[in-house]
Amino acid sequence: MDLNPILSRVDADLPAAMDRLLELLRIPSISTDPAFAEDCARAADWLVADLQSIGFAASARPTPGHPMVVAHYDGPPDNSGPHILFYGHYDVQPVDPLDLWDRAPFDPAVEETAKGPVIRGRGSADDKGQLMTFIEAFRAWKAEKGSLPFKITVFLEGEEESGSPSLIPFMRDNAAELRADLAMICDTGLFESKVPAIVTMLRGLLGEEITIHGPNKDLHSGMYGGAAINPIRVLNKVLASLHDETGRIAIPGFYDGVRELSDEMRSQWQSLAFDHAAFLGDVGLSVPAGEQDRTPLEMLWSRPTAEVNGIWGGYIGAGSKTVLPAEAHAKLTFRLVPGQDPLDLREKFRAHVRAQLPADVTVEFHAHGASPAGEMTVDHPAFQATRAALSEEWGRPAAFVGCGGSIPIAGYFKTELGMDALLTGFGHDDDQIHSPNEKYAVESFHKGIRSWVRVLARLAG
Amino acid sequence: MDLNPILSRVDADLPAAMDRLLELLRIPSISTDPAFAEDCARAADWLVADLQSIGFAASARPTPGHPMVVAHYDGPPDNSGPHILFYGHYDVQPVDPLDLWDRAPFDPAVEETAKGPVIRGRGSADDKGQLMTFIEAFRAWKAEKGSLPFKITVFLEGEEESGSPSLIPFMRDNAAELRADLAMICDTGLFESKVPAIVTMLRGLLGEEITIHGPNKDLHSGMYGGAAINPIRVLNKVLASLHDETGRIAIPGFYDGVRELSDEMRSQWQSLAFDHAAFLGDVGLSVPAGEQDRTPLEMLWSRPTAEVNGIWGGYIGAGSKTVLPAEAHAKLTFRLVPGQDPLDLREKFRAHVRAQLPADVTVEFHAHGASPAGEMTVDHPAFQATRAALSEEWGRPAAFVGCGGSIPIAGYFKTELGMDALLTGFGHDDDQIHSPNEKYAVESFHKGIRSWVRVLARLAG
């Protein structure tokens, strides 16, 4: 199929596409703040109308929280071709601290920068700008060809930035309607801001909070110091025991089930020539701090971690206070990789802590969230098709990459709907998502749209 | 000398002595709160007038803070006998939380309790009730004998509960006037609330605050976790390294100069039959947590400690946050014993921390206070005389004890005025000093006065 007419239309229509995106960005759809509930509904309605204008059967579907946008486009009468679901989210992060913004967050505009023009405004990269890349691709394709090449479902969430409380119930209640051959999730970025990337490994997450209890009240360190156990001291010992001297996690059984990287992935990642000096240098560091026998990308993508995210106990005000506190606390998260069972690891962590407690000390555990790691089946034909399409558009081979963080939606498509998911997107590392002055490169938007046109063509076969 | 007439007078005068104490307790001389400055001055004036009524040349001496009460009683014309200074403090702790008091803190009264009558009110035990024991002893002695047996100086401070900012300058400016053969400090308690005690060892104190710096900003643990160093992890390792598995402090050189207990002290302390099970049991503990080869009393009185009094870093709010913080903090204090130099130990601690820092991590130290341990020269004749007097009054041998905390005044008499100091007092462990419902046993007050009568007699020779 000759894609040039469609791609040319994308190029010609870019100014209008930008105007549409700016219109959507002007709606302050902050999902976590109830004061913006009407704006969230307005953003959903705007998307419904836009999708209807392209020929989708679209509606905003109520939930206990913000609405879901669901839109269907029927494929050819013979039902040939795949059925692909496209996911994005129309809600955005809060904007504080407002005084750090160089312009009003919901008064978006195109700005010239040293790296080229960008669309500045809350939600431009996360995720309105990204979800509009596939919608604009549908629009251009439809305008040029009269119809889309196969059956498409669009599923846009409005609670991604506020914990997605309605997502799983909605998926379950509408499973038959939502189920497709594959979910395309457009909420990630380019690798090192330049290489098109498909995320194939996502780390899981396990959260724990522990409280070490010692004496039954705060004690004076003069009167009791030396004879009374100090819970902070116990907490330090316990937490210091989580890693050995080589950076390896020392909880017995922690690595059970962890697999080595496949040769294909290892060679893929090596070819990325990851600049870890620049990556760490940006945040004032120089030496990778993980397991000494692993590469930096392994540390970030395919190896589990144990981190203390918060610690507190005793007197933390100004000056000095000679207190032996009754208790000490820490919040931890573990990043998990494929093969690790979060609930099993929770028990192993707790057993490891309990085994180290001296007399007179008790521990209290509080469970935070647990989600397993995700690993995509890259031999799915759509992965190779998408990879080829991205490589073509960006002029360099698209990479299969890992992601150190957790993107729960990918797992939910699998567990709730039995679908594989493919994560790709066009964000830059410096897009300031979740921060003031969020932006999205015009190039990301433009080439993102063109990328989806190519993906549609490849998937249509 | 037949002391019975004086002791009988003490007994007979007890109701009037209690009334005087209650009057003093009604003055809310909270030194730390400027709103009570006039009350502090009023308490000083009350004491001046009372001492004048016994024949002292007394005055309230202005300082940049609250006044000092200084009073002199000249000894016999032939200057025979010692010159003894008596120290106490007329200021009191704040009273909050007020709602935990069973009566208004400055509306004192005698209350019957299961353990006998007590004087309830702020300052009753710390230190107004105690300082009035020696003043009442002077009164009774003078009333019975016409004059006091030797030269006496009374020195009462009004800033003990607020860091004594004026104390050292005042001592220096008035050194010649204040210098005596010995200072009697009445601000301590009975051992285990029953054995009369003279404190002969006081631990010193060294305070340090450390901040571990890692990345130049807070990082997301998904994006950076595994490759970026976590300052909390470093802090845990450093703090966990302060003690070895036997409870011994592992800072190189930390025990340099620490002396073993003398045979006399060891046998003294053994004879006390310290009930450490009850001591620890009161606060929910059972096993002494210090060096495993030391007795509980050594842990508390004659061995140094290293304690983390406060620790904080990262996210400490509700729920979970996947942050790798830019820094982590801890406040520490070390209890020191004779032979240890605080400033030398500060450097040893800092070197120990620095030696453990991995790449990319820096540490910032902030010094809190440093004061050496104190050890009294118990072969001073006054110690034996006082001990004999106390043993006589209380019907059981008075003990030479240690004190795990720091009482800086004793050291100041030595360093500023070249005087030895003797610490004794009649408080109970459950007097609730610094807490709501402070009390002082009527027995402590009564037998305290009688004790001082006996001490005066012994010191007069």
Q: What does this protein structure show overall?
A:
Chains A, B: Keywords: Hydrolase, Metal-binding, Protease. Chains A, B: Residues 202-360 form the Peptidase M20 dimerisation domain. Chains A, B: Pfam families: M20_dimer, Peptidase_M20. Two copies of one chain form a homodimer. Chain A is 35% helix and 22% strand. The first copy, chain A, starts with a helix and ends with a helix. The model of chain A has no long low-confidence stretch (mean pLDDT 95). Chain A has two domains: 4-202 and 373-460, Aminopeptidase; 204-258 and 304-371, Alpha-Beta Plaits, CATH 3.30.70. The first copy, chain A, has 14 helices and 18 strands. In chain A, strand 1 (57-61) and strand 2 form a beta hairpin. In chain A, strands 1, 2, 3, 6, 7, 8, 15, 16 and 17 form a nine-stranded mixed beta sheet that branches. Chain A has a four-stranded antiparallel beta sheet with strand order 11-13-9-14, with helices on one face. A three-stranded antiparallel beta sheet of chain A has the order 4-5-18. In chain A, helix 3 (128-145) crosses helix 14 and helix 12 (381-394) packs across helix 14. By secondary structure, chain A is an alpha+beta fold. The radius of gyration of chain A is 25 Å and the shape is elongated. Chains A and B meet through strand 9, strand 10, helix 6, helix 7 and helix 9 of A and strand 9, strand 10, helix 6, helix 7 and helix 9 of B.
